[in-house]
Amino acid sequence: MKEIKGINCEVKNCVFHDKDNNCLAGSIKVGSPNAIHESETKCETFECSEDCRCE
């Protein structure tokens, strides 16, 4: 997988995260379409890695 230039990702438990905080997904989708605050957006491409502590 190749990094997406210009995307910095600190979500270490995502399958697309690498040790240099790059995103290795082929593309990303960010939502929510009606967001008016930063806290209302999220990366919808996120997938838990196999060592992820999902609850």
Describe the secondary structure blueprint for this structure:
Blueprint (H helix, E strand, L loop, with lengths): L29 E2 L10 E2 L12
Antiparallel strand pairs: 1-2
Q: Give me the number of helical elements.
A: 0
**Could you list the spans in which at least 5 consecutive residues all have pLDDT below 50?**
none
Rounded to the nearest angstrom, the distance between the terminal CA atoms is 27 Å
Mean pLDDT score, rounded? 89
Rg, alpha carbons: 12 Å
**Helix-strand sequence:** EE
Strand arrangement across the biggest beta sheet: 1-2
Strand-residue proportion: 5-15%
Estimated helix fraction: under 10%
Structural class: little secondary structure
Shape: globular
- Please outline the major beta sheet: 2 strands, antiparallel
Total beta strands = 2
Keywords:
55 residues; single chain
Description:
By secondary structure, the chain is low in regular secondary structure. The protein has no helices and two strands. The chain has strands spanning 30-31, 42-43. It has a two-stranded antiparallel ribbon with strand order 1-2. It starts with 29 loop residues before the first strand and ends in a 12-residue tail after the last strand. The model has no long low-confidence stretch (mean pLDDT 89).
